[in-house]
Design a protein that fits this description.
The protein is an alpha+beta fold. It is built from nine helices and 21 strands. It folds into two domains: 140 residues, Rossmann fold (3-Layer(aba) Sandwich), CATH 3.40.50.10330; 157 residues, Tumour Suppressor Smad4 (Sandwich), CATH 2.60.200. The strands form five sheets. It has a six-stranded antiparallel sheet. The longest helix is centred in the first third of the chain and has 14 residues. It is globular and about 60 Å long.
């Protein structure tokens, strides 16, 4: 049973953090959300930047997490303390704003303007902006799991192999709409994966594999695909998805069936659940972390599902 709570502060003050470099940035959507907040008789502040680092800095200042010799402008002070953050962008923007929300113990919402919007899609099963606005205005929230990846926050999913290669290919093309297009993309991405032996530990269970796909999911979606649709968002467990051998030729069928929600995990591609996952060696591999392609932060990758959960309007 999903347990939702309601934010009880009588004078809501939303801080909207807008990533102007988001893949599907749309200022009209931000204005639509702002107008909806105003019509509810609530307060909002909009801060827009093309630097996500700047957005995080401003969010920390607004939440009192960073000292400054300059007081906030008077018109912002009159709105009262910030009671909620809203990430206006994609998964990467959500991830960074979530760090601040966790530190400040504030609920957050999201206005989807990214390429994949995996986190919003996982929470709402939709990327419709109006749905997101309604969730933000309603102010009902639930707590969802988060994890750390060698010191970095993970909210949605982490991938090695197939998913990063798919994300790399999708930088040059639109996300597929049909299963056969997903199948073609999966085949091309699998052919580009450099398969290497990896040692993986899921809690106390340790094994060696040569996977084409290796993914850790807290939320169902990665690159627009429902990899783990049965994910439980608040059980302090992550799904670990991998294939046992170098069978990249089967990835085309796997991706096609996943896109249609018809794949059943078994002997070819397996799904394990755990709280602590380590994988090595990881050096020289491209990683996909909440919509972003990054270099590995360490030779040994450790994912730890934390006790502290994120409050999300949903």
């Amino acid at each position: 049973m999903i347990r939702r709570r309601h934010q009880k502060e009588p004078h809501a003050h939303y801080y909207l953090l807008v990533n102007a470099r988001a893949a599907n940035y749309n200022r009209k959507l931000v204005d639509k959300l702002s107008l909806a907040i105003r019509r509810k008789g609530r307060f909002y502040t909009v801060y827009q930047s093309d630097s996500v680092g700047d957005l995080v800095h401003r969010a920390r200042l607004a939440c009192g997490l960073r000292r400054t010799i300059r007081p906030a402008p008077e018109y912002i002070q009159r709105r009262g303390k910030v009671t909620a953050l809203v990430a206006c962008g994609g998964d990467g923007t959500f991830n960074l704003v979530a760090e601040v929300a966790l530190a400040a113990d504030l609920p957050m919402g999201a206005l989807p303007m990214g390429r994949y919007n995996n986190i919003v899609r996982s929470l709402y099963d939709s990327v419709d902006a109006q749905t997101a606005i309604e969730k933000i205005l309603k102010r009902d929230y639930r707590k969802i799991d988060t994890a750390t990846v060698s010191g970095r926050l993970l909210v949605g999913s982490l991938g090695v192999g197939l998913i990063p290669e798919m994300a790399h290919l999708l930088q040059e093309r639109k996300t597929p709409r049909f299963a056969f297009r997903w199948s073609q993309l999966g085949a091309k991405a699998a052919s580009a994966v450099r398969v290497k032996k990896m040692t993986i530990a899921v809690d106390s269970f340790r094994f060696e594999v040569r996977p084409t796909i290796f993914n850790i999911n807290l939320l169902p979606y990665s690159v627009g695909l429902p990899l783990s649709p049965a994910s439980i968002l608040d059980d302090h467990q992550a799904e670990t998805i991998f294939n046992m051998g170098d069978n990249g030729k089967k990835m085309s069928s796997f991706v096609r069936l996943i896109s249609k929600r018809r794949y059943f995990y078994g002997s070819d591609v397996r799904l394990y659940r755990g709280k602590t996952i380590t994988v090595q060696p990881i050096k020289g591999r491209m990683l996909y972390l909440d919509g972003e392609l990054i270099d590995p932060p360490a030779t040994v990758l450790k994912v730890q599902v934390g006790e502290k959960q994120l409050k999300v309007f949903c």
